[in-house]
Amino acid sequence: MEIQKMQDFLEDAVGAPYVYGGTGKPCTPDYRRARAAQYPAMAGNIRKFCPVLSGKTTSCGRCKYKGRPAYDCAQLVKAAFKAAGVLLPSGATSQWKAKAAWVYQGRITGAAARHVCVLFRQEADGKTIAHAGISLGNGFVIDARGHAVGVIKSRLTAYPWTHMA
Question: So what's the pLDDT on residue 127?
Fold first, then answer.
């Protein structure tokens, strides 16, 4: 696996939009409309954070996300691994369950701050993974955090990660 290519990909992705179901295609009102139709439960947030679909403006001209690739958390992880030459499934829970992909898999430890690895936040039900991101191995994480903030870089300790692989 080419770790540097993964890290470069992730650093370049910081500032990209989060769109539920986003797979790295350019962010446009039409792309957001299609994701809203595909995921009706998320349609409100998909529209709310688009200046055109929320009615704040009529064009993408001043949108900070204009033309940037749009991701959700698991698709960002998948794309980062693809940049490093590794294929992962879609969906955070499916990624967690891809046991053959991981050398270690378990509850988060201090090693997560020192190693490039995938971080997960497990739901209270103990079965579903709610979120995924990637530790850069230096105490920082890059993840597609949500519609309001997009793809961000933050300290590993700034989010309630529960598991690592």
Answer: 85
